[in-house]
Amino acid sequence: MDWLDGTDFGYYALCPAPYLKAWEGTEADAESPMHVGKVLLPDHGEVLTLGGQALPVAYLDRARTFVRRVSCDDDASLEDAVEHAMTSDEWQDVFEITLGGHYVLLDSGVRGAEVGVDDAIQVNVPSRRYRVQSLLIYSFMGEFFLERLIAA
Model's pTM, two decimal places? Predict the structure, then answer.
């Protein structure tokens, strides 16, 4: 599993790949203190943001789920724990968002021109409207925030 080690600015953004070089690092400044949010990027649609805390983040493509590590001793079985969490009835609906295409998950405050290979995670999302849901899970490995995309 590929992890981004943390964010200096408190938020990650799912930046549309075609916009990456133009990303100034201020586009998500108006974010609320929620764990997940969205901002409108003119001419590029909605941008998903994750944050409020400088936690490491990963993306599980198969589950279309972002995982942020609150505390963890070992993430070797994390994918199994996330898979098990998919059936939970405790997921909370947050909002709907329209996404589609190739994105770069990055520290929202970093300029796109300065983002290196180790500073971002590539994310491909089929085009459609999604319901964003959040869940905090506790497992023997630790504590994790999950945000998943469910076709709306």
Answer: 0.90
Alpha helix stretches (DSSP H) within the chain: 78-85
- The domain segmentation of the chain, as residue ranges, is 3-151
In this predicted model, what pLDDT tens digit does every residue of 94-147 receive, in sequence order? Answer: 999 999 999 999 998 899 999 988 899 999 999 999 999 999 988 767 788 899
Who contacts 28 (Cβ-Cβ below 8 Å, separation ≥6)?
11, 13, 37, 39, 47, 49, 108, 109
The arrangement of strands across the sheet holding 57-60 comes to 3-4, 57-60, 65-72, 142-151, 120-139, 92-107, 11-16, 45-51, 36-41
Query: Helices (H) and strands (E) in the chain — how many of each?
Result: 1, 9
Residue 79 to residue 43: CA distance in whole angstroms: 35
Instruction: Show the tokens assigned to 139.
Output: 């497992």
Cβ-based neighbour number of residue 118 at 10 Å: 9
Rg (CA), the chain: 14
